[in-house]
Design a protein that fits this description.
With about 150 residues, the protein is an alpha/beta fold. The chain contains four helices and seven strands, in the order βαββαβαβαββ. The chain has a seven-stranded parallel β-sheet with strand order 3-2-1-4-5-6-7, sandwiched between helices.
Length: about 150
């Protein structure tokens, strides 16, 4: 299975570290691609296909959406897994063009019900993240830290 992880962070925080660790573990059994800011390229092993795009732009920037959509068309993943609200906004807005299952992982408790509704599955990294979320297929998957 080919899984594409997408995240928009430019820092080296908890979400970014989680995506790096998730990509490494998934790459043992699956083909993994990551779409992220160029600043993160060096954090991923060679067996993980890294595609960079300038994610410093506004999440509603049509050129950013077109760029990510083009990368997704090029790599043809079986599943798209967005991490965080910004990546969720972007992937949620182009989901219908991809026609593959989508997953959104939320890493903080800010209400993301509007973003989440366009995803097939929503994961919260703790139960408090999903407290105010309305989604039929929302689950908690602890990230193992803490």
């Amino acid at each position: 299975m080919h899984i594409c992880l997408v995240f928009a962070g430019t820092e080296d925080g908890g979400m970014e570290t989680h995506v790096v660790e998730l990509a490494e573990m998934l790459s043992i059994r699956h083909q993994i691609s990551v779409i992220a800011h160029q600043a993160h390229r060096k954090r991923f092993q060679k067996r993980i296909r890294f595609l960079s795009i300038d994610l410093d732009r506004w999440r509603f920037n049509p050129n950013l959406k077109r760029g990510i959509n083009a990368l997704l068309r090029e790599i043809k993943p079986d599943v798209i897994h967005a991490h965080g609200r910004k990546a969720g906004h972007i992937i949620g807005s182009i989901k219908n063009k991809q026609k593959v299952p989508t997953v959104l992982s939320l890493h903080n408790p800010a209400n993301a019900s509007r973003i989440a509704k366009s995803f097939d599955t929503v994961i919260g990294v703790s139960s408090s993240v999903l407290t105010n979320l309305r989604h039929d297929n929302a689950i908690v998957v602890f990230n193992g830290r803490g």
